[in-house]
Structures are given as structure tokens and as C-alpha cells.
């Protein structure tokens, strides 16, 4: 949802709220981002907790909801509600209160004061962006992988059901990547065993133009061995192609990265 690209005026309000429900096995990923210029609100999962960052005028806030012995990446449905409200204190100063609640149980709140008078939103991202780490206030670099439902953004009397707008093909919404408007259970990460020294897997090329991540767990009694190797096409003006590799040597992990230079 990007009004800045169409020349539309940003959504301006004295209070707004975000409500969404998610289910995932991924510990880190962008849930929601809205902003206009230097003002923003960023909602994400980080290491199994919910993190919220906000900048408004000259004030910045960080809220973390990560209860002891509770994680939100357990593939169960969790509801997050965020509420912002601006109240004018004087002719030059206003007060903004920020509240975040997960599952109606875990809550945090904070506040800031500054020269702002309204909340403004010209763009909204749900579940990710083309370059998440570059979003203002972002503390993560990965998009969300899982299920989202009932994603609602309310600004004063305006209410947007963003998932429904995307599902019905609204011109206000641009859908990027592979998005199914239904919730599918993630595939189980079943282990695989390599039984001989010649055993290996050949998988599709890892094509990460800007950012990318790989995670894995290993168990072995061998002190040496190649774990992952990925290389790009060889260029005529470079001595060798780009490569990324992870190996064990003498029981220690070694990471190799060569961008061709």
C-alpha cells in the first residue's frame, strides 16, 4: 500500500491502530510497517518475540514483548494489537502514547512528546518488503514466512482490511512474491542422513541479489567435511566466480565468502 507512488495524500489522523493475527515457525520476520518520511512504525518478530519501533517528530520509541519461557514462533495463532494516540499538550508540544498487546495478555506501553500534531502514513508493508533491512526503524533483515489473517489498519474513522484488499485485487494494494490467500501448514524440516563420503544433494541456486539467509542444524562424528557450497557464474574479467561455502575442518566450522574481488 503506497500512496507516495501514486501522488496521493498520506493518511493523517490523531490516532491509529494495527491489528493482525499470525502463525509461524520462523523466529524473525517483518509483520507490519507504516510510515511517511522520517516518521514510521515498524512491527516485527525477532528471536521469537514481538518488537515494535516508532519514530514521531524528534522522539523514538522501542517496545519489546518477549515473556520468559514464551515464544510466538510456535506455529500457533497469536494476535497483536498496536495503538497510537496523539494528544496536544500546548500550542507547540504534543504527547503520543504507544501501546502494544499480544494475545490480550502480554502488553507494553511507552510515550513520547514533541512538536508533532498528527500521525501520518503514506505507505504500508505487510509481511515484508523488497529490502526490509533498509526500512526506517527495522531491526531485522528478513521477511515474514507463515500465515497472516485479519490485518486491519485503522486511522480515525478510516478502516482498511489489508488482506481482503489484496485478495480482491484492489488497486490500492500491490502483491509481491508468492502469496496464497489461504493458510498452508509449513513443510516439516525432516532431517536427512548422508551415509557415504560420496553422498550429496544438488539444490537450486541460491540467488540472493541483496540479502539472504541460510539456517541449518548438523550432527556428525566426522571432523572434516563440506556442508554447503554455492557459486555464481564465472565472469571473463574475474579470476573466479562468487562463492559461499561452509565446511568443517578439524572439528571447527569455517565460513568462506568471495564476491569475486
UniProtKB/TrEMBL annotation:
InterPro entries named among the record's database cross-references: ConA-like_dom_sf (IPR013320), Laminin_G (IPR001791), Neurexin-related_CASP (IPR050372)
Descriptive protein name: Laminin G domain-containing protein
Domain Laminin G: 1-183, 190-261
PANTHER family linked: NEUREXIN 1, ISOFORM F, PIKACHURIN-LIKE PROTEIN
Gene3D superfamilies: 2.60.120.200
Organism phylogeny: Eukaryota, Metazoa, Ecdysozoa, Arthropoda, Hexapoda
Record PROSITE patterns: LAM_G_DOMAIN (PS50025)
Pfam families membership: Laminin_G_2
Amino acid at each position: 500500500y503506497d500512496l507516495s507512488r501514486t501522488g496521493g495524500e498520506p493518511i493523517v489522523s490523531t490516532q491509529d491502530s494495527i491489528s493482525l493475527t499470525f502463525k509461524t515457525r520462523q523466529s524473525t520476520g517483518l509483520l507490519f510497517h507504516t510510515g511517511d518520511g522520517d516518521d514510521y512504525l515498524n512491527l516485527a518478530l525477532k528471536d521469537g518475540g514481538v518488537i515494535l519501533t516508532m519514530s514521531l517528530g524528534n522522539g523514538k520509541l522501542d517496545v519489546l514483548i518477549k515473556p520468559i519461557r514464551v515464544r510466538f514462533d510456535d506455529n500457533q495463532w497469536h494476535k497483536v494489537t498496536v495503538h497510537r494516540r496523539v494528544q496536544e499538550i500546548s500550542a507547540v508540544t504534543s504527547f503520543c502514547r504507544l501501546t502494544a498487546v499480544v494475545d490480550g495478555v502480554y502488553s507494553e506501553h511507552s510515550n513520547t512528546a514533541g512538536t508533532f500534531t498528527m500521525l501520518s502514513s503514506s505507505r504500508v508493508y505487510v509481511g515484508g518488503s523488497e529490502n526490509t533491512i533498509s526500512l526506517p526503524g527495522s531491526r531485522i533483515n528478513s521477511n515474514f514466512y507463515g500465515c497472516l489473517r485479519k490485518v486491519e489498519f485503522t486511522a480515525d474513522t478510516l478502516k482498511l482490511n489489508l488482506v481482503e484488499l489484496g485478495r480482491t485485487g484492489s488497486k490500492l494494494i500491490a502483491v509481491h512474491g508468492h502469496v496464497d490467500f489461504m493458510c498452508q501448514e509449513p513443510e516439516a524440516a525432516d532431517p536427512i542422513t548422508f551415509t557415504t563420503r560420496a553422498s550429496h544433494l544438488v539444490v537450486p541456486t541460491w540467488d540472493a541479489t541483496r540479502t539472504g539467509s541460510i539456517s541449518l542444524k548438523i550432527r556428525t562424528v566426522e571432523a572434516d567435511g563440506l556442508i554447503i557450497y554455492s557459486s555464481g557464474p564465472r565472469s571473463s574479467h574475474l579470476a573466479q566466480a562468487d562463492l559461499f561455502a561452509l565446511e568443517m575442518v578439524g572439528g571447527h566450522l569455517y565460513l568462506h565468502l568471495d564476491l569475486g574481488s
